[in-house]
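Slide 14.
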Amino acid sequence: MDITRETIESFLFHEADLLDEFAVEEWLALWTPDACYWVPCNGRAGGDPTREVSLIYDDYARLQDRVWRLASPAAHSQRPRSRMRRVVGNIRFELREGELHTRSNFLLAELRRGRQEIWSGVCQHRLLASGDNFQIKAKTVLLTQSDEAIDNLSFLL
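Slide 15: predicted structure.
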């Protein structure tokens, strides 16, 4: 697989589309079995999720649980489901030790029950080439508003 800006952008845009369309099972299939999905509550990169308070800190098994709960009819926090659209930009990347490290900015509009929220931040992905695509080994989401009161973070970032 040729790793180019185009293939990286295509993958990150595809992931954003899956999340916006609530294709959570397809999104889960993008992850490696040793996955780590982390949303620190301090919005800073480079910390240690085992020693810091996190909004989300999931391994693959917890990601599976999260997806199952969100897809369940009993997920009251997503009834009605949030309507979302995200914009991904300022994508930077580098190869390090066999992994592709990306850093991108995002802006996410969420509409639910007549109320619109704007979420923003930085996503850091660690990707592995897999056939003609990538798999997500780790994703860290640094929310701009991570140290503010958050009403309902019951969807996937």
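Speaker note: Strands lie at 31-40, 54-59, 83-96, 99-112, 115-130, 133-143.
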